[in-house]
Specification:
Structural class: alpha+beta
Shape: globular
Protein name: DUF4440 domain-containing protein
Number of domains: 1
Keywords: Signal
Number of helices: 3
Organism: Duganella guangzhouensis
Helix content: 25-40%
Largest sheet: 7 strands, mixed
Order of helices and strands: HHEEHEEEEE
CATH topology: Nuclear Transport Factor 2, Chain: A
Length: about 150
């Protein structure tokens, strides 16, 4: 009987690991796509593409910039302060993905910010995003960017 329990546990563990790997790969790909649009948001259509990754009622919490309560407000700030000024780069190896039952997932990691004018990546911070999967599409419902500091 113990043998069956061990086999069932091993099967369940490998299934969860495969599911986790697929979820991580999916959200890593979406993170890349989303921030490719963010990084080129001064080009036609890219700011709208970036906006499409966010729920209309997204809450965005930024330790230095404060809170925005809608996608429109967040995108207005992105257009004003980001587009053409700097890019966001995911720090390799920092992305973590956790499934949220019957909702979606949470991603966390570290990112750096690189100024287009100088090419220097001077800032680093942590991020957390809450993603909802609805009708086959992933959108961010909550985003936090915090712990901003010089990149040393």
């Amino acid at each position: 009987m113990k043998k069956w329990g061990v086999l069932l546990f091993a099967f369940a563990s490998s299934t969860y690991a495969a599911d986790d790997a697929a979820l991580t790969a999916t959200l890593a790909r979406i993170d890349t796509e989303m921030f490719n649009a963010f990084n080129s948001c001064d080009k036609p259509g890219q700011l709208d593409k970036y906006a499409s990754y966010f729920d209309p009622n997204v809450e965005f919490y930024h330790d230095n910039g404060g809170v925005t309560w809608t996608r429109d407000a967040m995108i207005a700030n992105t257009g004003k302060y980001v587009c053409g000024n700097y890019s966001r780069q995911l720090v390799p190896g920092t992305l973590k993905v956790v499934a949220v039952k019957d909702f979606g997932a949470i991603t966390t990691g570290s990112h750096t910010f690189c100024h287009f004018g100088t090419g220097k990546c001077e800032g680093i911070a942590e991020f957390t995003m809450v993603w909802r999967l609805r009708d086959g599409a992933w959108q961010v419902t909550r985003a936090l960017s915090y712990g901003h500091r010089p990149n040393q």
